[in-house]
Amino acid sequence: MAQYNEILLAAEKKAERAVETYRRTLIDTQVSCRHSEIVEGGHSATLRPFRVCTKCGYAEEGWGSGYSNLNNNYKDVKIMSRDEASKYVRGVVLSQDVHWLTRVGRSRRESLRKVLEEHQEVSF
Ligand SMILES: [Zn+2]
Known about the structure:
Blueprint: H1 2-32, E1 38-41, E2 50-53, E3 59-61, E4 78-80, H2 82-86, E5 93-94, H3 96-99, H4 108-119
Parallel strand pairs: 1-4, 3-5
Antiparallel strand pairs: 1-2, 2-3
Helix pairs in contact: 1-4
């Protein structure tokens, strides 16, 4: 029995390392992406709308001008249902309480990296 336990623990450690490697790759990609193709999932009765880059999956919640890195001209943003837009999200949708911090200090890329390192989560 102990042997099976050790095998499974070793496999879990491998899986955890793979998830962390993916998370690091996701953050690097989202920091360097120009976020040029954006879609918006509309609001619901209780939830704010959110925007997501279809290329890298970076996502922010907000209204109109309430986006920090996905504030492209409204006419260039394709509006769709929340379910449809959610399919493009990789990691989490950053709340307004969090993504505004990417506008503070340093360069935009450095600030975005810091925020993503603290808040980006992935799961499979
Ligand atoms: Zn992007």
